[in-house]
Design goal:
- It is a single chain.
- By secondary structure, the protein is an alpha/beta fold.
- The chain has 16 helices and 7 strands.
- 49% of the residues lie in helices and 8% in strands.
- It has a 7-stranded mixed β-sheet, sandwiched between helices.
- The protein binds iron/sulfur cluster.
- The site of iron/sulfur cluster has 14 residues, from helix 14 and helix 16.
- InterPro entries: aa-tRNA-synth_Ic, Rossmann-like_a/b/a_fold, Trp-tRNA-ligase, Tryptophan-tRNA-ligase_arc.
Length: 365
């Protein structure tokens, strides 16, 4: 069982085997200009992604759904989702961004007004700063608590889901509050509603997620099948990306500030945090010169791999210099922290400019 509300580190190979997630690399030959996260194996799994590849190739309608639960601050791991949305925007996707204020309320006791404020100041502001163009007509952003189409669909879909099934998928027990029990159905409706007639009818839809969100995907695909005769839903596709390792070596998590570099950190703080990150270096310089470092076990290398180095050639050089012991962690960290500082200087300027537009996106009429 995977608990989508916990932050345990997962074994990716096991997931592929156990839950029938297919390797993403099988798709690579068919994708024109794949995203860097795809090329580098950070997006490692998929379900039914062939439909999306076909839609992109034929330039036919398809949708991407990626929700955000406003419950804390965005960190650089969350950036991966936005990077993918920006890429899908260039591929002509309809982009749906549900703001999961109902989930925040039931799972974290955050009220709707607080969620709205967080969504604007933290999430939408960062999404704009990271390059998503909200002024395009094909970007649909909404609060779950205000979307009657989604709420009505969730209620309709709930008719064919029972309590035992929810317990089996999510491990809900006797103490789970009833609002929380209902929230997965709202998320199912978030994912399926772009296929309603009023939203353009059935179409391939992809949900890019971390593997901890797979229970929602499996439930959504099952429900889409159960309601196929009524709505003609196409089971949604999904992709799965690895989590970024936190500064301490655990998964990066907003609820554990010591693990995370937040997008709202100042450039100086971000720089300092990179310097404090756990590396795959050896116990002594002599040992590292002799044996080389372990980039596969290094939070700094992950930052370079996921975010900071765009050129594959440059990345290969960093990797081999580490492996053969010609570069030591101190020098490598200095370079990575300067790159991170530069990235944060850019993003903080763009965040400042993004504020007004972010306010307008969720403004009440
Ligand atoms: Fe990580 Fe760089 Fe040290 Fe290698 S040299 S372990 S990549 S910090």
């Amino acid at each position: 069982m995977i608990d989508p509300w916990s932050s345990a580190v997962l074994d990716y190979e096991k997931l592929i085997e156990q839950f029938g997630i297919k390797p993403f690399k099988d798709m690579m030959g068919n994708i024109k200009d794949p995203h860097i996260l795809m090329k580098r194996g950070i997006i490692f799994g998929q379900r039914d992604y062939g439909r999306i590849v076909k839609a992109m190739r034929e330039k036919s309608d398809f949708a991407v759904v990626s929700g955000m639960m406003p419950s804390g601050k965005m960190h650089i791991g969350h950036k991966m989702i936005v990077d993918q949305l920006v890429w899908y925007q260039t591929k002509g996707a309809d982009i749906y961004i549900p703001i999961a204020d109902m989930e925040s309320y039931s799972a974290r006791d955050i009220d709707f007004e607080e969620s709205r404020k967080l969504a604007v100041s933290e999430y939408i502001t960062n999404y704009i700063a990271l390059g998503l163009d909200f002024t395009k007509k094909n970007v649909h952003t909404y609060l779950q608590s205000e979307n009657k189409v989604v709420q009505n669909l969730a209620y309709l879909l709930g008719r064919k889901v029972n309590l035992n099934e929810m317990k089996a998928i999510y491990g809900f027990g006797g103490s789970t509050n009833v609002s929380h029990l209902y929230v997965p159905l709202v998320q199912v409706a978030d994912i399926l509603h772009p296929q309603l007639e009023e939203c353009g009818g059935p179409k391939p839809t992809v949900v890019p997620v971390g593997p901890d969100q797979d229970p929602h995907i499996r439930l959504t695909r099952d429900i889409a099948e159960r309601f196929k005769s009524k709505f003609n839903f196409i089971a949604p596709s999904s992709t799965y990306h690895r989590f970024i390792t936190g500064l301490t070596g655990d998964k990066m998590s907003s609820s554990k500030p010591k693990t995370a570099i937040f997008l709202s950190d100042s450039p100086e703080v971000a720089e300092k945090k990179v310097k404090s990150a756990k590396t795959g270096g050896r116990e002594s310089l002599d040992e590292q010169k002799k044996l080389g470092g372990v980039p596969e076990d290094c939070a700094v290398y992950e930052m370079l791999l996921y975010h900071l180095v765009q050129s594959d050639e440059d990345l290969k050089e960093i990797y081999s210099n580490c492996k053969n012991g010609t570069v030591m962690c101190g020098e490598c960290k200095n370079k990575a922290s300067s790159m991170m500082k530069k990235f944060f200087e850019d993003i903080s300027q763009r965040r400042e400019k993004a504020g007004d537009l972010a306010e307008k996106i969720l403004a009440k009429d």
